[in-house]
Structure prediction request, 772 residues.
Amino acid sequence: MRKWNSTLLAVSLSVAALTACAAPTTTTTASPAGSASPAAGSASPAVTGSPGRLGTILSRGSLICGVEGTIPGFSFVDSSGKYTGLDVDVCRAIAAALFGDPEKVEFRNLDSTARFPAVASGEVDLLSRNTTWTASRDAAGGNGLEFAPTTFFDGQGVMTSKASGITDFRGLDGKAVCVETGTTTELNLATRATEAGIKINEVKFQDSNAGFAAYQEGRCEAITSDRSQLAAKRTALPNPDDNILLEDVLSKEPLGPVTVNNDSQWFDVVRWVTYGLIQAEEFGITQANVEQKIQDKSPDIKRFLGTDGDLGKQLGLAPDFMVNAIKAGGNYGEIYERNIGAGSQLKIDRGLNKLWTDGGLMYSPPFR
Amino acid sequence: MTTAPPSLSSTRPPAAQVGAIAWLRKNLFSNWFSALLTVVLGLLLVRTSLGFLTWATTTAQWAVIPANLPLFFVGRYPVAQYWRIWAIVGILATLSGLSWGILSRNLAKLFDRNILIGFGVAAAIAVLIPAPIPYRILLLALLGLVLASAWIGRLVGQRMPQLGQWLSLGWGLSLLVVWWLIAGGIGLPGVRTNDWGGLMLTMFMSVTSILLCFPLGILLALGRQSKLPVLRWIAIAFIEVIRGVPLITLLFVGAYMVPLFLPGGIRLNQLLLAIISLTLFSAAYLAENVRGGLQSVPRGQAEAANALGLNSVLATILIVLPQALKVSIPTIVGQFISLVQDTTLVGLLGAFEMLGISRSILANPSFIGRYAEVYLFIGAIYWVLCYAMSLGSRRLEKQLNTTH
Prediction:
């Protein structure tokens, strides 16, 4: 009798497994209108004949945007389950430019090892996830990517307490600085110190959290890491306002959206919508006043917002694509301030990310 | 296994050998060395727990947990569709209550003291958790549902004992319903797998992979023992290749290389690929666990079955496999428990399962630096999940215990 019990167990388990088996097969079907350009990653000339990524996205009806998903202020899920952040808002603006609806975007989380294969295999239409623009990543013989305009000029920075009295990089002479070991951060610090002719006492840590804990305990007078990282970690300190980020930037980390090589049509859309957000700030067009600005008399603004000329059509978009993009989350300045600037808890100074007219690097070529 | 009868002695134990102090003396202070160890370790323990308590009550900022409770449990699942998750929990509660009632129909008492205490604790937790009031009422109602359906199951089970055989079918059907409720389609708005998350996704991946890898693992184990060379080679090659590759590599291959090989236009669901990787990986390990069980069954069993006229397939299914599986329950459940924990690796690929969603919550500028609180919380949930599994396996072992 007992034996039959266990047989029953074995059989029932297998039956349960088989019935469960029937369920997953329903999802094996390919998603509708999946990526039609599987060869987008390679330099195959066959792609030129096909409709290209832009056509694929438009027929799919939604944009697939790769984000990091766990970077404070750049991309994360807020308590209501909504993706939030600067990188996310750029994706929303592009979705709005394509479809007139900022919600027609699907986000995929990609970590740093997965991001490039995901673009190459066409898993995502674009990356908007803190990817530094470098020559080897851009080159066809390297990663073979296209870099749209930088949306955040990051760089290695130094945080120190106000009480320490250090005001610039030279002030670190003879001071203890916490740094994560085995990173370019460590190398940059050493290089800059040599250049400045000062001697820095490096306190090395394997893990960035351990480094911040040491800084908090006062075991080093300053800590160095990417400026956006420092700003994020600063908010977690007991008294954030007692700590300052030095103005000195020790390395260049231009971060921006990325698409795959050899699809100029799609790349141009990403590039010009991104430029458009910067241009909108320069024109003073905001989320609030974009409807009034449509009536503006200036020929530049008329062309920009699509009431005149056919820039939208040339890009393969609706004439008022920039109106929709700005309505989604405002111009670049608004996106910046809301997510990582004064309007957020991170309070990262705009620094290099100011408009060129204010002494920053944000510069859009003319919309003509 | 012989149990020697306890040696009978007529002398009563001296009074000093019973009681708390005697116990302490015997176990903790038997000589100077163990006394020293007890004092040192005791102090350390008290110090640590005090430290933890002070931290938990003063420094820790627990607000991050209630503020993100829905995220932890269902991730980005649309708020308007939460009722579907509740319905699933309701179905599972009813089914487990019924199964419990029917299976224990012959016990003298359904709700013994331990079980009542367990339910009391669960009810207290349901009342105390920092969730909105309607959710707490729902949780209490669910507990009531389990008790009620257990009682009904017992009553019905006593009248119709053959009902027990239909339970597994009920569970099988419920899986289809659960799938339908989560994913939508046929009358319900669809929810993309991209929006699934939290505990729900963790459970979904674990349960699906467990159910799929179990039969596959058994087949592989049988294949490896097969007398047919091709079958045996295939099984050996599969097991050794999969076991020789780290799970994270398999997941990466599934997620980023398979799409490159597929013909254009076909895009497989990322979650499906992750589940396939998890299933293949666990099946290879499970096959070895089951093979151990198979080898522990004496050859005589199969020979006796053949002598009775069973062919080799029937002999395997009816005689050898049940005994082999019974022997390997502990290792199989161990494999399942590690499978549950392995689902966290899928979080590295960007899925918002419990660990993934926690990392995203920690990136919310409002909750930066709340690592300890968040990780403790999900750690507790993982512990409950895994401990429940190990408890269940011990019960199963006890029930199937037929030592000869």
